[in-house]
Amino acid sequence: MSILQRRLIPNYLTFSRIFAAIVVIIFLSLDSQIVLFEFTFMGQVYIFHTNYVFAGAVFLVGTVTDYLDGSLARRYSWISVVGKIWDPVTDKILVNSTVIMLGYLNVVPIWVSIIFIFRDTIVESYRMSVAQHGIVVPANILGKLKTVFQMVGIIVVFFMLNSGDDSQWEYWVLQNGFMLLAVIFSVVSGSYYIYEISKKINESITPKLIYGKTSKAAVSTKSAVSAKTNKKPVSPKTVPVAKANKKVISTKNTHKTKKSAH
Predict the structure, then answer these.
(1) What predicted TM-score, i.e. pTM, was given to this entire model?
(2) pLDDT, tens digit (0-9, with 9 covering 90-100), for 9-40
(3) How far is CA 229 from the centre of its chain?
(4) CA separation for the pair 1, 21 (Å, rounded)
(5) Strands annotated E in 51-199
(6) What is the pLDDT of the chain when averaged over all its residues?
(7) How far lies 204's CA from each of 26, 111, 136, 182, 239, in Å?
(8) Phi (first) and psi of residue 163, to 5 degrees
(9) What three-state secondary structure class fits 165?
């Protein structure tokens, strides 16, 4: 494998998440009545349906590639512009498409899907709109925790779905706890990103708009003021002195003329 091909490995892993999202959607669209295996634990029967197990396995592989592409790019200096742009995009494609399908199938509450999609849409739109001004807001611990809880919550939902007794609170917490934490961190991290971006806008864009791009009227007004300011005032004594000097010169010339006449 050539050096160029090795440098493209992180990009291959990044785009593989789009393929993983498509496969997850296909598995979720299949019949959920096919049982892969089941077992009993502490009096509870756990049933694992084929489509959910395979969808969860593919989603798990997709989350692993999210770690691998960034790790390889940083370790071997294989960072590229394509990777920087598409890495967060493919993450959103994998997670949001899965969440939409789970909401459509009533596996998770529809309001959970709406919060995830709404948060990501606002934050990413805000980021792209200010990126043209050179404003970059890096990922923080809140956003990373949101992603972790989101991915773990989806995987747990896949493997715990239709297993055990929904009436027991322990089972409910195990199946939905990570997803609820993901919702909380989604709202908190989204609010923090908006706050940070707004603060940087006030610090960098607003001064440029006020002082860097003035209107033509402001420029002409400023030029007129500067012209008036730079104009040297004429001393009131300058004109009389000049006239007096002219009179003295003319008087001297008259005396010279009279002397020459004598």
Answers:
(1) 0.68
(2) 899 999 999 999 999 999 998 876 777 777 77
(3) 47
(4) 28
(5) none
(6) 76
(7) 46, 36, 12, 32, 53
(8) -120, 140
(9) coil
